[in-house]
Structures are given as C-alpha cells and as structure tokens.
C-alpha cells in the first residue's frame, strides 16, 4: 500500500481483500473467544474452589460468587451479593486483610496500578464464617481485574489443622530427641544450630553455647576431618532425592572437651530446618560415623492460570471416550503419564469392564446434557486409589472431568460404617437402657429402654422430655422437669454427668436408676448420650444394709467386748464404747487419735509379731496378748481378729473383737505357777509319789517312784494298776481300801521290798486321801520313801564310830611320832655332822675311817627310820626324783603279799629296761598298792592278779585321741584281775570323788579319784577296761626320764667352800656348833645365836655384816620363817636357808613369800649343806 505507483483501482481491490480477511479473522476470533469463555464458565461453575469478584474499595462487596460457595460454606451465591467480605472474616484476621486492601486502594487512587493488572497476585490466609457459624481456614489468591478484584479461594481447614498437629508433633519430637541417649546435632551452613543433651554429655560440654555455632569438623580428629568433610560436601551436593533417608553408619574419631579421643558411630539424615537444607547428625557413644545425604526435591507450584491453586485431576473426554487434554497435576493422581494417555480411548487405557462403565457414564452426561458425579477405583503404583469425579458437558460435545482423590475418605467411611455397625449392635444388645437426646428430647433408644419402662415399642418413647417418663417430683422434692434440664446442662458444660434419678414405668411404678449423661457431637450436631441402669435391687440392698448396719451398730455398742477396725499403719478407723472403757480412755475420739503400735503396745515389735502370726494362719486367728492401759498397766486381751484384703491382695484393714482376759490370765498364771510348782516338787522329790483313783489305777507318778520300782519307762507305771509288787502286802491293801472308803490316812514303815532289778530295798509308805470340793473321796496320794540307805547307815554307824576311834588313835600316834622324829633329828644332826667332819680329818688312818663309816651307816639308817615315821604322820612329801618303777613295784608287792589270799596268784611281767620316771616315790607306791588292793578284793573266790611294766611310744594319732598324753615315750604300768568286773555305768563313775562299789569297812582310805589325781599330776593318764564277769584292767601312762644319769654316791665330789660371813640360829647348841664347824672347815666365817630375838637385835645394829642366815624352823618365841621376815625387812636380798626336822612340810609359795632360798632336812650332811650354801650365795 505504500507503493505510490499503484492505481486507485488496485488500492480499492486490495482494501476489499483486506476487509474480507479481517471479517474472516473476526469470525474465527469470535468462535475461539466463545469457546474459551465456555471453558472458563464451565471451570468456574464446576470447580470446588470459591471464585468471587468484589468491588475494589475498602468494603470489598461481593459482585459475583461461583456455585461452589454453597458446597464449601453453605451460602447460596445470590445471598452474598452486595455484602462486604469483612462481614464474614474473623475479627483477628481483619487486622491482616484490611491493611493489605487499604494499601492497594491507596495505590489505585494514586493511579499507581495503571497497566499493572496482570503483575499483581496477592495470596492471603484468613478465617471465614460458614452459614452454621463455624470458621473455615481459607487461602485466597487475589488479582486486579480492571476496576474490580478477582479472588480464587480454597478451603484449607484440613491443611491448617494438619499444620497445628505438625507443630504439636514437632514439640513432641523435640522432647523425645532431648530424652534420647543418642547424640543429636543439626548442621546448617557449616554450623551446628541444635544439639541435644546426650551429645553435649558425649563431647564433655555443659552449655549449648560450647557447641552451637561451631563447625562440626572442629570436634573431629584432624586425621578424619578430610574424610568427614568429603562426606558432608558429598551429601549436601547430592542430586538424589534422599531427604529423610538415614545414611549408612561410619566410624569416626571425635575429640572431647578434655582432649580425650573417642570413637563414635555416626549416621546423618538430610532434613529441612526452618526452610533450609540441614543435616541431622546422630552420634552414638562408641563411634563417629557421619555421612551426609542431600535430597533435593522440587514440586511444581505454579499451575497455568486458574490451575495454580488446584490439586484436583482435570481432563477432557469426547463422546467416544478419547482423552483430549490433561491438566498438569500431582503425578500420584495420574494412572499413566499424560503422554501415554492423550489421544487414546478409555478402552486403550483401562480394563474393559471399567472402561465400559466409564464410557457409559460419559455418554449419559453428554446425552442428558447434565452434570453428574461418579466414584471409581484405580490401581496406581500397586495400590488401589478411589476417586470422586464430576463430569460437566461442554458445547462441543465433550465433557470436562474434575477428579479428586477420596481414598482416605473411603477408608474413613468404611471404618465409620463398621464402627456404626458395632455401635448399633452394642446399642441394641446392651442390658442397660441407652437413649439419645437432642434438644432436650429423646430421639432414639434401645430395646432395653422399652423393656425397662414397660412399653410396646420405642416409638412411644421418642420425642419425649425426660420428665415425661418421671414422677412429678424427685426424691429431693425438686420438680422433675427443672431438675432434668439442669442435669443435661451440666453434662453439656462438663462433658459428662452421673447421678441417680427416679423414673416411672408405663404402669405408673416408680423405680430408681443410675444415669450417665455424655455430651457428644455427630456431623456438627450436638447430642447427649444417655445410659440408665436399674438400681432397684441395689437400693433395696442398700436399705437392708443400712438396717443391718443399724442393728450391727446397736449390737456392737452394747457388746461387753471391745470391737475395732484399724489401718495397716496403726490407726483406729472404728471402735465401740466397750473398747474405749477397756483401755481407759475418755472417748472414742481420744482413742482413735492414738498410734496403736506406740501407745497400746509395750514394744512396737509385739504388734508386728501378732500381724505375722495372722498372716501365717491365713489371716484369721485367735491370739492372746497384752496391751497398755492409758494408766500404763497391762491389759491382757483375747483377740478374735483377721486381716481384710481387696481384690488385688492389698491389705484394707484389720478388724476383730477384743475380750478383756486380764483376770483369767492372772488366774491361769497362778494355776500354771502352782502346777509348775507341784510338777517341780513331784519331779525333784527324792521320794516316790503316785496318785491312785477309785478304780485302783495309777493316774500320776514321778520318776523317783519308777526308778524305785525298777521301771525305766514312766509310761509303763502310769498304764498299770495298783496290783504292783509293792502293794502285794496285805496290810497296804487293807489300809488303801480304808482310805478310799473312810478317808483314813495310813503310814507303814520299814517295809522290805525287792524291785524289778532284784534290788533289795527298805521303804516307808504313807497314804493321804484326795477329796473334791464336795468332800467326796476320788483317790489316794501315796508317798514311797526309800530308807534303805538310812537303815543301813544306822547299822554302819556303830562300825564308823569304831573306825573313828581307831583313826583318832592313829592320828594321836602320828602326832606323837612327828614330835619324836623332830627331836630324834636334832639328836642325829650333830652325830651325823661331826662324824662327817671327823671322817674328813681322819686322813689315811684306815681303822679310824672304817669305824667312822660304820657310825655314818648307822646314822643314815636312823635317818631313814625317821623319814618313815614322818611319812606315816603325813608331815613329809618327797620331791619328785628320777625313780625306777621296777624296784617300787617289787617293794609294793612284797608289802601286799601277806595280806593277799593264797587263792590269788600274782604274776609279774616287768621289763627291766624300762627307763625311770620323774615322780614322788611315796605317791606312786600308794597308787600301786591301791590298784593291787582293789584287784584282789574283786576276786573273793580267787583268781589271777597280773602286774605289767613296759615302755611304749605314743604317736600323734594316739595323742589326738587322749588330750592328756603327748607324743613321746611313756612307762606303761598295767594292773589286771580276773574278778567280777564292772558295767559301763560303774566305769563312768569310778573316778568320781566319794564313789565306791565296796562297803565302808573295806576301804583303803585312798579312792580311785586320788589315784586319778596323782597320775594326772605326774603328767600321765589312766585308762580302765572291764566287763561284768570278765575282770578289770587299769593302764597307767607316766612319761619316762630321757638320758637321766643315776646318782652315784660312791663318786666323791669336791665340796665347795667360801669366805662369806654366816649367821647360824638354832636353839639346839650341838646342831649349831656342828653347822659352824662344817662351814669354818671350808673357809666360811660363822656366828651362832641360840634365839631368834638375839639374832634380830644383832642384825639390826649392822645389817651388812652377814652374807647368809641359816636358821632352824621350829624355835621358841620366834620361828625361822618369822625371823626371815624380820631380817629381810632390814636387807631385802638377804639369802636365807631353813633347817627342819619335820620333813618337807613347807610349800613353794610359802618359801617364796618369806624369801627362803633353800630348805635342808635334819640330820644335816656336809655333802648337802656346802653345795646348798654355795648355790644360795651365788644366786643372790
């Protein structure tokens, strides 16, 4: 047209062509526009989203609302037109929406929005009130549409509720994470932003500040950092969608705060933390394993135009069922990808049966030109998904199909149906009456309700107020209508309410029920669920229980016994008046305040013991124990008690009846004491005591009587009658009969009797009748006294008196012999001493030496005679010396042979090589004589007496069996006889003091107890073996003296001398001179003093003038011991020697007390004196 060379006709022709083209393009555009408008109209009217157009001002009034508003909010679209959106928005949300609208209005006024209509798209969330008054969470996408506002709004209530639940879940998750033992850390942008307590403890830190904000690599060992860094970088840069996928565990080293290195097990998961990608690291306390996973997920949010706010599946189908278009949507909702579906028919995509059903549905919609809804299942990803689809016919003979996933709803519907079925079954079959109330009137009930009220069917009960099925007034006097309304209001307010109510049956009968009202909501409507339970029987039982309790209370309060109920801890729950009085308290209130264990029991352990006894006897037992009266005195009670438990075995309380048995207890104690006293008398009485009843049966007897009868078993006596041998005497029988008939006592003395053991006894019998309170005789007490010993003692008394007179004569002779021996020793002392001195001076004069030796021999024989006299008078006990038992045995047998009958043969088996023993010859001599005497006296009809001596060795095993023996060599002396022998009972007692099996006139004066003592005193032991009729044998063990050198008197020793000064004190001048000459001949200096007092006087003037004192023991005025005591007070360590003519009568303690260093027996030999003097001086 710009070509200026064209003609006008050409230009007109081109213009006409152009007009035709424009007209054709306009017709085509109009058709496309019409089609687009139809599509938008169909989508707008059939979408589930709310689409509205409002005025663009501060009121934002509705100009257009699509039909979905009724489905979502319950409003008819025309009812909203002209109303402001702020009439429906929640007051709290107006604060957000209004400022936003106000801002755009201002920009509009300032014409700042001109040409920017398509650039503004504001999304806002708010709460919108539906027709019922409920609030919905809405999300609205707002665009400017010329001078109006276009809003596409979706109901997001479920999403919001899910978000709230998510926040609560996150809070719960946080508390769980904090409580985990596994260390948890969240790592964002190379920094720790969260750490739980377990990880802080693992790393040795206390505060979050020590960890948060640092790179996790700071806690990793340097050698592992590169590997951990690679893992982190790899995880964060990963392209895979690994979100919420836990990495494989790895072992890494971490460094604690104190520098120590730990091996940890680490795993990580990529999460979104406040909109940012983050790693949640989980660390166990044995390894560090950190692997980073990064999952990138992107979702398509911006759908084209209107579909950007929709999540439904939208597609088009033609009449043949061919897919024309599919809108972009979630892949989870698509059976196959759009590329596999578009252009294909339903039969090419779905199974035939499903395709036939779907195609029929599509054609029906198109044929009827009417929208329709269908529900159908699809198998997607191996799972069945349910969809709800709405088909809308289009003008081009196709349909627009919008489908929504209703799988979860279908599951809920199915669950609801099952629940409703179960509820309906429970509802109809329940034994309790169940009703439903709406708006204070019954709308439903079960068969139990109809039956309970006596009606024919439930239609008679529906649409009635609870008061219409009740009496006019309730038991408390209130109007049933008003009170019923109040009860229902309480249930609605609190959620539930339980109470008792009187209802009325159809026949007018009033009955009580227990009512439970529960407020419930069904499909946004409020109901009250009602349960009735007929409590007629319970009420009657309660009434009877009250009457029973009243009777029980009256009974308990009037009982003379105490009744209680108490807690396991020891507090009274209930008591009666009798118990209060019994324990001395003023009132029940005072008694119920006390602590039972502390205030009623004398020791807290006593109550515990009683409870333990009750548990042992299945929690019920009658026990008697004492309680403390308020005054402090004892109250003995008999408790008929038990422990009561609940269904789980827990103790609820203790209860019982206490009876005051204090008087009975005191009587029982007195009776028991009396019985015990009588029993002790009966048992310990040395006389036999029995009781015999009128049937002549023995009803009681003591052991003394059984022993007397020769019956070892007391039961045998109790089972017998009076026809015992002891009662065979006619005199006893007659006396017993008189005692039973006439009550006459009797006494029979010195009655001979032979027991079952053939033991001959002499007894006294005394009988006393037994009478009851009424004076009736029911038996006889008989006392039997064994007087055998006393009778024999009387017979022996004369013998004893004779022996006593003989013993007194011997004692007098002994005393006389002792005095004679002492005087004779004083005579012999100078003879022996001067003879020895003369012998020392005789030199080589053989004749004089021979004569002096004869004098010495005669003197020594005289000395031995004096020793025998002293032994007889028991004024001498020899020191233990090494003695040969062989000669001692021969000497004893020589002494005994004349007194032993010739019918007894004596055998000797003496080992001559048996070593000597360290012993007192006199005592061992007496032991041999005693044992031999006992042996021959046991053989009155003859026999053999054998004496053996040998050396034996006691080994360790034998020593263990006999504690008085030790390992080593012993001399074994055995004395055996073939006499009558002894039984075991006698053997057990033969070594007891004063025990003998012989008569008094056959004793030796030295019992076996003395023999036993002598042997034990010599560190030996004695054993005996015997059998009745086979004789006896005694074995004596005495330790031998090893390597003992015999004294050799024929070896002359050099006598020691000295130069010390000696004080000699003796009232016999000849003895004093003899001692002085002995000492001076060997270099000593000696002074003689005839009295002790003179010696003391001289010594006190110059205590250091004498080195030794030799004094006689027996002197007038001052004895040798008294003299020693006086002199040692002046000079503590003064050596002293005592001379005596009475033998070894001084004991070792006595000598030590007076400081005596040595004792020399008179007559004194120079060979005894000089060594003794030297020894005492040297030891001082």
TrEMBL record:
PAC domain sequence ranges: 248-298, 497-547, 621-673
Record-linked SMART domains: HATPase_c, HisKA, PAC, PAS, REC
Pfam families: HATPase_c, HisKA, PAS, PAS_3, PAS_4, PAS_8, PAS_9, Response_reg
Catalysed reaction, written as an equation: ATP + protein L-histidine = ADP + protein N-phospho-L-histidine
Keywords associated with the record: Coiled coil, Kinase, Phosphoprotein, Transferase
PROSITE patterns named among the record's database cross-references: HIS_KIN, PAC, PAS, RESPONSE_REGULATORY
Keyword hit for Transferase: yes
EC number: 2.7.13.3
Chain ranges of the PAS domain: 36-108, 169-239, 299-369, 548-589
PTM annotation (4-aspartylphosphate): residues: 1112
MF terms in GO: phosphorelay sensor kinase activity
InterPro entries: CheY-like_superfamily, HATPase_C_sf, HATPase_dom, His_kinase_dom, HisK_dim/P_dom, HisK_dim/P_sf, PAC, PAS
Domain Histidine kinase, residue spans: 819-1042
Cross-referenced CDD domains: HisKA, PAS, REC
GO terms (BP aspect): regulation of DNA-templated transcription
Coiled coil: 1-35
Broad enzyme group: transferase
Name of the protein: histidine kinase
Species of provenance: Caldithrix abyssi
Lineage of the organism: Bacteria, Pseudomonadati, Calditrichota, Calditrichia, Calditrichales
